[in-house]
Fold each of these.
Amino acid sequence: MIKIVLLSLLLSVGLLAVSNNTVELEKIELQEIEDRKAKKSMEDWLEGRFGLMPHYVNYLLPFGFTEQDYKSYVASDEYGHMEAQLQVSFKINIGNDLFGLGEKYYLSYSQRSFWQIYEHSSPFRETNYNPEMFVVFPISDRSYSSSFNMRSVTLAYSHLSNGQGQTHEDIYTYPYEDPNNRSRGIDNLYINFKFQYETLITDLKFWTPAMESKDKSDNPDIMDYMGYTRLKLTYFSGENMFTLMGRGNPQTGKGAMEATYSYPLVNGTFFYAKLFSGYGESLIDYNNNLTKISIGFSFSR
């Protein structure tokens, strides 16, 4: 109970800090500074203008419930059905229009953590790390022959891992045969097509793992569960935002679906709810089928 109160207090302090941001800025006087470069640097620092932008959704979901058991790879770990989930994700623009096509180049980093805050010692059950580099090509599709007009094409390289070391003794044996091995990771190349029809955005994504010897992989069958394609719909109605995502592998019949809803509250904070069902919510659970509902707050969309 104390941990729940502390988590709620942390959220409240964060919201209060955001709401008072303008007041805090007014306490520092910049008008009389003659050094223009120093003044500009101070303004950038005060207003947080460092080029970082949200990439995927940034959220804190204190309440996430599933009826299925989480698989434990450590005998002493016992996980509960309720946990918190948080994600931090940002990107930075590193270049533009190198080929005269209006394209933009980015680096991004995302981190998703699953926190057993309601259990003794509050362990982090799993954390996934996802750095990416990608280029976005804008498309000016004004064709009236189709309701869905293409808006952009994204090409990317993505690394996803849980940062765990290999627990088997010989790295050249089959690590996925070791039931205690926690190491998970995969490198992907992907292409994403973005379409728009009024307030509906459609993303169609195809990816393939980078070349890797299966006998050295910690999860050589991961694509059987994660699939090679993803379709995501994003719909706006007034201030409401809905998303519906589906991905899978037609050959194995395995994949996942996810639905989210967000609504603005105050100062860039949103109510956020998420329903996930299928495989691969986290890397450690890539071959564990679960259904989970999570509720909390997001700080970007």
Amino acid sequence: MRMEDERRSENVEDMRGASFGGMKLAGGGIGAVIVVVIALLMGVDPSQLLQQLPTSSAVAPSSGPTQSSPEEDRLKDFVSAVLASTEDTWGELFRANGRNYVDPKLVLFSGAVQSACGFAQAAVGPFYCPADQKVYIDLSFYRDLRQRFHAPGDFAEAYVIAHEVGHHVQNLLGISDKVHAAQQRASETQANALSVRVELQADCLAGIWANRADHARRILDSGDLEQGLNAAAQIGDDRMQLRARGYVSPESFTHGSSEQRVRWFKRGLESGSTKSCDTFAVAQL
């Protein structure tokens, strides 16, 4: 990706020097299992997870000097550029539709973080918290993306941010609240199915960003699209479950299969239009 000349966002909060000494799961057991399972999924709403995981008494974060490697410095600069690009893209799209786009904050943390949705550990992966309109990411996730999920490349890294910003767009449009209300009235299987539609729509919205940003600034290089599509495929529920337990349970999907994630990401990439991203209007995903 050609991001060297792009502006950097002012909405990045670096919390990597903060520590949460009192944070640990009580008792391990099923709580630890839940964390491991969720760690295999990207873009989780942590409020649903954290309601199930009791913690010891909270300790206020203590700030300290941020220790960062040259690679982390590069990643911080890169995600700041990607975030700025999403701000420009969605700001323009919202204005064109008579709406005001509120920029999300992006919080960098290491190990654990306190969000408005509760405590979260790095194991949950990158996530968006609608309560404070912030995207959270531990930069070590990108190492996992390359090594564990076999999805290398800077466009794969950008896709992660764009997907979470997609959840912010859903939040601003009122989609998140409507889905959450519907899930409260639904069975577990039905709630999971709604979650899949939310996640696939966020994939499609990430594709819209890539389409619009590239048309405006020519940020994509040869091979970038393949990196993004590979990342979408590698984090499909079916592949994640096969890695974790050796078999697939479609009724427990919360993010969509590899094929679905690739298809909806491509829809946004190819169309550049939000009209193509209504995952709630189609019977077959």
Amino acid sequence: MSAHLEKVNVLRGVAILLVFGYHALLIIFGQYEIYDFKPSWLWIDFARYAPGRIVLGMTPPGMGAQGVTLFLVISGFLIHWGYLRSGASFRWSEFFNKRFWRIYPPYLVALLVFSLGMGTGGWLSLLTHLTLTHNFADQTFMTINPSFWSLALEMQLYLLYPAFLLLRRRLGIGRATLAVGALAVLTLGAEIAVMPTNMALWLSPANLWIVWALGAYLGEKFFYQQRLYTGSGYYLLAAYGLLTLSRLTIIYALFGRILFSLFFIYAIDWYLHRPAASSAASRGFSRFMALVGVYSYSIYLFHQPYLQQLIEFFSRGSQSKPVLAGATALAFGVVFGVSYCTFRWLELPSIRWGRQLYQRFGPVLHPAPATAA
């Protein structure tokens, strides 16, 4: 499985570069995304916006918010595949111990660093960030560090995993995933009717659980060696082109994350079963992307909210787009260096401490009885 895990790290690398590029574009161009569909309520209002702004929103980094979608799909895939691979019954204590020590201590350090540098936004903001519930309200959603909302979401989706396993046991993986999808559609309809501009509701666990569940669906199919997609990569490229065009319609605003999640599980299945890169250049690029993927959590934690200051420092006040592009690359180099250190000195020790504490103080685990083949 090691080759497949390296490919998963490549995908993580793609996801974090999409997120990083998305945030860099917001700094360089301002709010370029278009969600104004009047007067037709189907297509964007082309008459109101320059063509360059429209095209920018259709580039991969322009739609880089889908990098978070890819992260959630990968998370569901790895968590559920790991559960099936272990062959053990679900143990709450073991599962949440691993997730806590993997996520929370590095997050807590980043939270304290940015709270000291940027301010907490008030006691409510700090309290909800400490409890990873700040994504439940618009007034705390983007405070301290705008990227932290998805970390709260991730932990909440971990809490929902036992419920997903129960659905899977009762309905099977396919129907369980459909049930979670139906919940997302119903929630979306209620939000449009009641609070259409509330970001906390649009990006709530009820809405985005389906993204994670689709990753888990892929994990189960992958474990049982059931292919989702065996066609040509050109068809996947065509599907991506259609998703890009959907950016011009209200379909993307309403269902973009679900549609991209479906695209990602088919694309990931195709990629994981592809032969390894043959040329030296391709192997080198894959190794670099895998390394970026290994450090992706630290990059996500620490690339904001100082990315704007880094870009401004390296661009020396120039508004030239090539200069700003170079400044963004240099800023990524700085963040990558910081992330190397935090991965080595925060993430790995945290995982090790969590494992040691669980072995010492956790419940005594008895091996599962053997079953007949």
Amino acid sequence: MQFCAMENFDWQPTATPGAEKYEVWRGGENAYFAAFRVKAGTAFRPHAHPGWEHLTVLSGRWQMGDKELGPGDVAITAPGEEHEECALEDSVVMISIGNNDIPG
């Protein structure tokens, strides 16, 4: 069993300016569970993942395609499905990538 408190996360910069990441768990190159702390206006260009992406908004407002998400909202993207994202407010989101056999 593993526990971690967000107040103790060791936030690391990402390749996207305005976004930081803390990896809670990594199971391989394309399988991980991570928190992202993202400044308002930060956008992630269209991209796809080889496995499922499960995104949960913890705080702030988030845009995925034409959908606006708030705290507690969840978005699930299928393997290979191209999507783009943007933080509408300073936000924290949890993202799980991988698990090709789990449909959602």
